[in-house]
Amino acid sequence: MIKKYSVLIAEDHALLRAGMCALLASESDIEVVAEVGTGEDAVRMCCSLNPDVVLMDLNMPGRGGLHAIAEIRRRAPETKVLVITMHKTDEYIQEALRSGASGYILKESGHDELRTAIRTVLSGRVYLSPDVSARVVSNLISGGAHTSSTTTAVDSLTTREREVLKLVAEGLGNKQVAHHLSLSIKTVEKHRASLMRKLGLRNIAMLAAYAIKNEIVAG
Fold first, then answer.
1. Mean pLDDT of 9-19
2. Environment class of residue 72 by beta-carbon count within 10 Å: exposed (0-12), middle (13-18) or buried (19+)?
3. Three-state SS at 52
4. To the nearest 10°, the Cα dihedral for 182, 188, 190, 193?
5. pLDDT on residue 153
6. Residue 124 and residue 170: Cα distance in Å, rounded?
7. Measured distance CA(205)–CA(25) in Å, rounded
8. Which end of the chain is more exposed for a tag (fewer CB within 10 A), N or C?
9. Residue 56: which H helix or E strand, with range?
């Protein structure tokens, strides 16, 4: 039996919701379990249904998508959030990733890209739309690093920290990284904390962007 991944759509425009539902209905391993039109309802339904992925618009009635992302990450941490929006400004992109989004694509993207983005975040990796990824990475690095240059920051990493960074950016969890490198989970956690501190980054999305920017992993 094919495993079905559950998807919740949070979008206040009914026609867009219907379009995404129609597209995903053709996917044998994806099931839309709910549709909502506000950020508050997205949080409530995530706590109730624990979907694998939320397709999240940013501009919705009430407190909106950015607040919902942070709440979902806090209350349903296993759920991945993929932002689907018309906004391509640095402020929206950075805030969405800082809030805990696993991906960010534009509403102008094609159907194939949406499918790719969903499967990428389901695999534990970060997906950034090609239209915005270059500026996202550049701004995450320039705005996040404590050091005066990215070269200095990269050079400050130990060999082991580079290994951990590469595996984390590829979507591996602490347990998988520990197994791969023959380390304890506690040691991996210490390396991740050190990476965050040295690079001035807050979450996995930022670590992945940093690794791509500095060619530690392929984009």
1. 94
2. buried
3. coil
4. 150
5. 67
6. 8
7. 28
8. N
9. strand 53-56
H or E element, residue 54: strand 53-56
Report residue 93 as tokens.
């992109």
Q: What does the radius of gyration of the chain's CA atoms come to, in whole angstroms?
A: 17
Residue predicted with more confidence, 28 or 62: 28
Mean pLDDT over each residue of the chain, to the nearest integer? 85
Q: CATH number of 5-138: 3.40.50.2300, 3.40.640.10, 3.30.200.20, 3.40.47.10?
A: 3.40.50.2300
Residue 137's pLDDT is 59
Residues 52 and 50: their CA atoms lie apart, in Å, by 7
The mean per-residue pLDDT over the stretch 188-192 comes to: 89
Q: Which residue has the higher pLDDT, 1 or 140?
A: 1
Sign of the Cα pseudo-torsion (2, 69, 87, 212, in order): negative
One-letter identity of residue 87: H
Q: How far apart are the first and last CA of the chain?
A: 33
Q: Is the pLDDT of residue 204 over 90?
A: no
CB atoms within 10 A of CB 1: 3
